[in-house]
């Protein structure tokens, strides 16, 4: 099995940068890799991406030397099994509010003795080229479990959620968190920021790395001062849209056009 370089970098407290990938085309992954990101989170929650496309995106990530994670749509045995058998090196679990969700994900994502993932010698196991017992042990070392905390309940339950030993890092979800606090999309609202600080404090107490969905340079600087090293810089769609819009506006302004 491929070595999970993201896991190694996080353990060494290297700064790492990732993007959500919603456009199901391998060339997007290639561009992200050439831009020298560290990881991608292929999104199955907010997209209609097929499992065949997931496998192609993961293959592109491998070629681009990116760690491929997949945000699943729900904690469910078959979906977790399929994305891992496609070659994902970790799963991101949206809307985690209970320890039970993490326990169930671990049960489906890890082999014995950590879980009961169904045995298969597909592409991550190099199609049976090496002993399956060796692959099982290696897979359990490389797979990452990443809960997203996106609600008031999730923040309140975070000490219990982050107590699970297989949690690799925790990813905040300030957008949905703002909605659960009654201030939709006001991610800078004091109540939202207080909740994020509470989650970060809990992560530190549990010795779990914290990842932020960074919303600007100043935002990154704030979290860097809090010793955060994992940054998700939005997704491919809004990154591309803003670049397209900025380029057009720059040329319009340079030409004196309104």
Automatic annotation (TrEMBL):
One cellular component (GO) term of this entry: cytoplasm
SUPFAM superfamilies (UniProt xref): Phosphoenolpyruvate/pyruvate domain
Metal-binding listed as a keyword: yes
One Gene Ontology MF term: aldehyde-lyase activity
Domain of life, source organism: Bacteria
A Pfam family hit: HpcH_HpaI
Protein name: Siderophore biosynthesis protein SbnG
Species the sequence originates in: Paenibacillus silvae
């Amino acid at each position: 099995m491929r070595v999970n370089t993201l896991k190694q970098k996080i353990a060494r407290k290297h700064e790492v940068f990732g993007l959500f990938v919603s456009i199901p085309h391998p060339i997007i992954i290639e561009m992200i890799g050439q831009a020298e990101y560290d990881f991608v989170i292929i999104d199955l929650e907010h997209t209609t991406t097929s499992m065949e496309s997931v496998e192609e995106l993961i293959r592109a990530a491998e070629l681009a030397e990116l760690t491929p994670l997949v945000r699943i749509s729900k904690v469910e045995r078959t979906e977790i099994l399929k994305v891992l058998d496609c070659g994902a090196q970790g799963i991101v679990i949206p809307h985690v509010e209970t320890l039970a969700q993490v326990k169930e994900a671990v049960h489906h994502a890890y082999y014995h003795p950590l879980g009961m993932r169904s045995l298969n010698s597909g592409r991550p196991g190099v199609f049976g080229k090496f002993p399956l017992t060796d692959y099982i042990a290696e897979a359990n070392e490389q797979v990452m479990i990443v809960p997203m905390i996106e609600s008031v309940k999730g923040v309140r339950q975070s000490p219990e959620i982050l107590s699970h030993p297989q949690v690799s890092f925790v990813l905040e979800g300030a957008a949905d968190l703002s909605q659960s606090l009654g201030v939709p999309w006001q991610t800078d609202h004091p109540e939202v920021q207080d909740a994020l600080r509470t989650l970060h404090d809990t992560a530190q107490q549990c010795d779990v790395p914290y990842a932020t969905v960074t919303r600007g340079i100043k935002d990154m600087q704030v979290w860097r001062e809090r010793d955060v090293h994992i940054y998700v810089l939005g997704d491919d769609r809004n990154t591309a849209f803003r670049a397209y819009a900025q380029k057009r506006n720059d040329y319009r302004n340079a030409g004196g056009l309104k």
